[in-house]
Amino acid sequence: MARVVVVGGGFAGLASAARLAKLGHEVTLLERSRVLGGALSTVEADGFAWDAGPTWTTLPAVVRDLFRKSGRPVERELELVPLDVVREHRFADGTGVTVPASRGAQVAAFDALGPGLGQRWVDHVASYTEVWETLRREYLEVPWDPAALSRPLAALLDGRETLHRRLRKTFKDERLALVAGHPAVAEGHDLRNVPAWAGVTAYVEQRFGAWTVDGGMARLAEVLAARMATRGVTVHTGTTARDLVVRSGRVAAVDLGGEQVDADVVVVAVDPRLLPTLAPLVARAMPAIPPVVTHLGLEGDVPDLPHELVLHGDPLLVVRPGGRAPDGATAWTVHGRGRLAEDVLRALARHGIDVRPHVVARVDRTPRDLVETWGGSPMGVLWQGRSTVRQRLRPTTPVAGVYAAGAHATPGAGLPYVGLSAALVAQAVGPA
């Protein structure tokens, strides 16, 4: 049995701790905040509550596997609810498309934009079939070694084509390119710096659908936090890890600034740049900047929107209805990216969604607020070209006994990648 210290109590840290404790290790979890969950938390004001981070996910098997490998099945703890629509897009020319989860429905939806566009879209999605299989088998489900890549994985990761170039080559209709590139843009990336294979998100969304949690995504963190007690994990909140203590080339403890927690294994589930020992290893990696976030409490007759509405333009606005609200009221969250030179409500009004007379509660959070609250960017590492995949940490790190999980150790943000990174750490550490 190893003494494992997990640094960070967001989804990656909770998932890593639960898996490793189930494998028989003695696990201690350190979280700088007073509460667990990280971006899987809620923001509350004036009787309203909003999901602070993600409101839905893909790859529900990642959540199911986590619960199965750490205790009770997810169906006995949470209700995963499938969404019929992935998101709705509205474009500057006044047109729009609602993207359903299934392939056949997507053909019809895009054909409504123009004849033949449906087939063009599903052909683009299908082009990622082999990309997904290669990533799944050799990158996402096994701890990969950059010095020993298989030929297919090396060809994929080292490819020079960018997502921007691929989309411009594939689609003559710019609207389809906007839809395909949106997931990366929403995470703060410039498509000219994103490798083409990262566009596999469209395939994942179509094949596995979109899912949410009944009661809000924060419920996932609440259930995992309760599982810490079930699995015997020692949890310290309000505790900041200052650095790692390395002796004879191997991690020996976590420095809390005045005291130490001894460890045989340390799982870093936070931005590694926060720890001086690891910071030089990721010196060339930059964080992806979160969006501007505005949580709104609305009363009265407001538009009925899908669970995610994308309003293309500059700024790019993403509206996510949902959350807890008093009777007769509605909760919305709005994300903004680009030139936000005006109030987000005025920007919404220019798109024909004017809810200014209905606002009874409002919480604004800048990118800096989010980074300070969570101790790093929930968007992970900024794509700066194909070399980025080697500039970030992977589940196994160059420091013996140190492993990395979370958005800073995956090819993208979001619960699926983060959950898979925790599974890789557990696989690499192994049973007690």
Q: Helix count, per DSSP? A: 14
| Radius of gyration from CA coordinates | 21 Å
Q: Write out the strand line-up for the largest beta sheet, numbering strands in chain order.
A: 7-6-15-16-17-14-18
Instruction: Give the termini distance in whole angstroms.
Output: 4 Å
Reported for the largest beta sheet, the result is: 7 strands, mixed
Helix fraction, binned, reads: 25-40%
Can you give the mean pLDDT? 95
Structure summary, number of beta strands: 19
Which regions are unreliable across 5 or more consecutive residues at pLDDT < 50? none
Strand content: 15-25%
Description:
- The protein is α/β, with parallel strands linked by helices and 432 residues long.
- The protein contains 14 helices and 19 strands.
- It has helices at residues 11-22, 60-70, 103-111, 117-126, 129-140, 151-157, 163-170, 174-186, 201-208, 218-230, 344-350, 367-374, 388-391, 415-429; strands at 3-7, 26-31, 42-45, 48-51, 80-83, 85-90, 96-100, 210-213, 234-237, 243-247, 250-255, 260-262, 265-268, 292-299, 309-311, 316-321, 329-337, 359-365, 402-404.
- The strands form 5 sheets. The protein has a 7-stranded mixed β-sheet with strand order 7-6-15-16-17-14-18. It has a 5-stranded parallel β-sheet with strand order 9-2-1-13-19, covered by helices on one side. It has a 3-stranded antiparallel β-sheet with strand order 10-11-12, with no helix packed on it.
- The N and C termini lie close together (4 Å).
- The mean pLDDT is 95.
